[in-house]
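Run log, item B.
One chain of 161 residues. Sequence copied directly from the ordering sheet:
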Amino acid sequence: MTDTILVLTEDTLADVDVEHLLALHEGEELAYRVLVPADSDQPLVATIVDNLGLGELREAWDRLLGKEPTVKEATATAADRLAQSLAAFERAGRSATGQVVDDDPLPSLRAAVADGTVREVAVVTYPQLLTDTFHRDWASRAREELQVPVLHLYSGTSELG
């Protein structure tokens, strides 16, 4: 049975993200499985702080006014991000599978790891000031719960979280 690298991402994986993931295991034949949460319930304060820190004033204002995507909108966005991420693996010469998961991805990560083929988890996100600082980000939570290595990469860079 082929070992699997489970990739959890909040956004579409860029070609450079896939290159970084593949470079971690160069020369190995591994399966890649991408999970994209349908994120319709973002924490108010953390999201606004992150939006302001990234200069996303419109997004911060919308969040302050309570404008969040519906579950249907969030699922459609996640499905599009998943399809584009799988296409990035194809462009890199590797196939990958994937699925859209619930808002909180930890139960899906636990279930995937329980099947016994997941070697490690790679979490690809943008820097998130509050959740990263207080270790409430997906990667930190996964490290606490899962019995496999968890790597946190910042989207579009080679920086580790």
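Observations after the first pass:
- Helices lie at 15-23, 44-53, 57-64, 71-91, 106-114, 129-133, 138-145.
- The CA atoms of residues 74 and 98 lie 16 Å apart.
Flagged for discussion on Thursday.
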